[in-house]
Design a protein that fits this description.
Blueprint (H helix, E strand, L loop, with lengths): L6 H12 L8 H12 L4 H11 L3 H8 L13 E6 L2 H5 L2 H12 L12 E6 L11 E3 L2 E2 L5 H12 L25 H17 L6
Parallel strand pairs: 1-2
Antiparallel strand pairs: 1-3, 3-4
Helix pairs in contact: 1-2, 2-3, 3-4, 6-7
């Protein structure tokens, strides 16, 4: 199979898999990693993740489709999410969402023709004291009025914000130390636990 992940991302993927007792447990982190590279989960990335985790593309796709933060189709460089749950609804969330739709020129769920913005309606984002809550690429922006939203859109169109990386980047901080103990020790301990579990008649650990 031809590798889809670029060298840097492939190395990070293999390091991720090594953190787990079972490779399939790394499925969701690997999906986020592939999305960081491409902006969404393309079919080639899904196939490579399946190979890395010893699963099938259908299993990876099924897992990814469960999570709102993972996208199986292309989205904009900036994914704008407006909350319309109860606190935000009472504070004007629907009206702000409608304004965002008009300002961006796309329906909810749509992406602008230039690929810059995707607009989403969200359930509770957990920032109710700044209702209606708005996130861009999973970063709170506390943009609670139409005027503030327009200013943010203009800023992002004109070159972006240092606080908001492209969609798919969950963290700018990279793991640099790997496992805190030698890999051989980890493998030996995992083998010991599996053997003890099997001897006691339990499920494989």
């Amino acid at each position: 199979m031809t590798r889809h992940l670029r060298q840097e991302f492939r190395q990070r993927a293999e390091e991720l898999v090594a953190l787990y007792p079972h490779a399939r447990s790394a499925t969701v982190p690997l999906c986020h990693l592939a999305q960081e590279q491409d902006g969404y989960l393309c079919e080639a990335a899904i196939e490579e993740i399946a190979a890395l985790t010893g699963t099938t593309p259908a299993e990876v796709r099924g897992t990814a489709s469960f999570y709102d933060l993972l996208h199986l189709e292309p989205v904009g460089r900036y994914v704008v999410g407006v909350c319309t749950n109860i606190a935000c609804l009472l504070a004007g969330g629907l009206e702000l969402l409608d304004h965002a739709s008009r300002a961006l020129g796309v329906p909810v769920g749509g992406t602008t023709a230039d690929g810059t913005f995707t607009l989403e309606e969200c359930e509770c984002l957990g920032d109710c004291d700044a209702a209606p809550c708005v996130q861009v690429n999973s970063r709170f922006v506390r943009t609670t009025t139409p005027a503030a939203l327009d200013a943010l859109v203009a800023e992002l169109r004109s070159g972006g914000s240092p606080e908001i990386p492209p969609f798919g980047t969950l963290s700018r901080v990279r793991r640099t130390v790997g496992l805190a103990v030698p890999a051989g020790q980890v493998a030996a301990e995992r083998t010991r636990v599996r053997l003890e579990t099997a001897a006691s008649g339990g499920a494989s650990g």
